Amino acid sequence: MKSAAIFALVQFLQLWRKLLELSDPTMQLLFLPGMEATRWNIGRLKAWTVYRRARRTAPAYRTFLDAHPAAPARFHGLVPDLSTLPVMDKDNYVKPYSIAERCFGGRVPAEGVIVDESSGSSGQATHWVRSRAERQANKRMLEFGLRQLLGPGPCFVINAFAMGPWATGVNVTMAFTDVSMLKSTGPDVPKIEHTLQFFGPAHRYVIMGYPPFLKLLADTADLDWAQYDVTLIYGGEGMSELMRDYLLRKGIRRVYGSLGASDLELNLAAETDFSIALRKALMTNPQLAAKLLKYPGALPVAFQFNPADFVIEESAAGELLVTLCRPTYLAPKIRYNIHDRGQVIRYPELKRILAECGLRPEDLCLKHTDLPLLLHYGRADMTVAYFGCKIALPDVQEALMRTPGLAERVHSFTLFTAEDTQANKQLRVCFELLAAQRFVALDKAALSAAFFAELQAVNQDFRESWRMIPVENRPQVEFYPYHTGPFKDSDLRIKLRYIQAA
Known about the structure:
Helix content is 37%, strand content 23%. By secondary structure, it is of the alpha/beta class. The strands form 6 sheets. The chain has a 6-stranded mixed β-sheet. Strands 11-15-14-13-12 form a 5-stranded antiparallel β-sheet. The longest helix has 22 residues. The protein is globular, with a radius of gyration of 23 Å. The mean pLDDT is 86. It comes from Hymenobacter busanensis. This is CoF synthetase.
């Protein structure tokens, strides 16, 4: 009886959702204040129906459950708790089973399906299939989200994500074709520069791409950015507040981030004016940071997400587990570990912590919702262990942006780790210079010293380790002209390789 009641309730909620999505004004009702607990519980009800359907009709998931026995889902009244179900990831679920086995019904539909792939930056590219209904639902949320950020009115979207079969570039193009002017240039500075020059400052531009490319564009395009109304939307990796401020000083009007994963969804969570204001407050308020943040090092990126669409949990190791709740996905993902380190904070908890610090949400930003916060610390495996400390990529990016003379010269970086013949850990921080920078003009020793001083300020564990490291084993900074050395084969179309073995 309970199962039948839940299925009937979820079907009603899905019909109600379709009606609300017909227009932006009705869609606003999905985010009315005071519905925080309702959205949270709706997400769990929808997640449970996805689980039940997958258990019945997705061959891979049935086999997966047999191979990973777990206690059945529990209920608190009518609200299910899926935390007893096994955790899936790319290694234990995606790779062992065929793409058809992972789909509802055990097959890939013959029509209406788009095939895209992840970038393959961590190895072999992985193929993903997306149904017409899935793409339409994603498209509708992206359209609505863009208008919430920028306000009503036309815009000119320039898609600077990688073109071709890669997931983000493909889906951004499909999402915004009907609601904006759109040009898909890929990560090509001259093409974007020419586009803005040709169409002129009369348009409201939105340029989407990976953070390193957006910085390269702002640094090297022959444009007076202040003459244009340009919003940058980044994805694929995080961005420090120092880099955001750097881009704003260039004349960019607004910079927002989106959190997605090709395994899951293009836009799981997004930065808002409120989440950005909270992150900036964490930079200047040590009491707030101590109460709110779980992990040391550079500040996480703060996003907000809709818990009625995505149930996001934290594993015991602090990694994010995501369940896709919309009924439109071809291949269900239930407690899927994307191996990103993160922290979920519900709005009432955030209000309580702010109050303990003498703050209210409206003190940070007048315009805000009661959607939960997702603090994203980056890839869980994207750290370098060095003399008892862990150095994360956001730490390096923040130290880079804080070092005078580096931010305006450096295009990208990579870290090399190795051990010498005496088993001493070695660390090299390699910086790729912008094409216009003269290699011989650098004061390399001074820039290196300044960078490591900033890295010690960002990462207190590294500061303590630095004191113990013998001078001859201290990490080194190396500078390389554009597209030389370890950067000669870099490809702007995919995510950069930030950690490499010597």
